[in-house]
Amino acid sequence: MGLISIFMTGLGLSMDAFAVSLAKGFCLKDNEAKYSFRVAFLFGGFQALMPLLGWWIGTYFEGYIKSIDHWIAFILLGFIGGKMLIESIKELRHGGDDDVPTECERDDFCYKKLTVLAIATSIDALAVGVSFAFLNTSIIPSIIIIGLTTFVLCFFAVFLGKKIGSIFQNYAELFGGIILIFIGLKILIEHLSGLA
Fold first, then answer.
1. Could you read off the pLDDT of 128-164 as tens digits, one per residue?
2. Where are the chain's structural domains?
3. CA gap 41, 153 in Å, rounded
4. CA distance from start to end of the chain
5. Higher-scoring residue by pLDDT: 169, 119
6. How many CB atoms lie within 10 A of CB 37?
7. Which pTM was predicted?
């Protein structure tokens, strides 16, 4: 998997975290840089940690399923991307009103709450890490690219959330789902064309 594909994967994976960061921005009243950095650091950190964990799991089982690795990568990425698309479409149909906080809590930016959100938004990256192991993707550059991409997007998403509200929140997840499905299809097509 090339650097562009890894970057695109990171972009797709970061869309959940981007959407949550936007929502956090709705609650921001002051200390923009401090809280933006806190959100970005935790979200980017877990988005890098989860693929590493998935890669380790995938490497351990690689010998058992090497012959079907491309199908596993395709299914995992397709499933994650499809799930993101479905959730995004549901939100768009319902107007996304439930996601816009009507009353922000005082501890909305506490480490405990942000860590739970960071883990929740990075679970998909665990499965992607498994697919990286099957594709013999170099893990260190991959997690650096994924982590930095998420960090940068989330940092600016908090500022953006404060400025524009909920207008673009649901479209971020839609975009992320499309990217992951595209990467999954690309992996499958490259493997099948290599067999021809």
1. 888 888 787 889 999 999 999 999 999 998 888 777 7
2. 3-99+106-195
3. 11
4. 19
5. 119
6. 15
7. 0.67
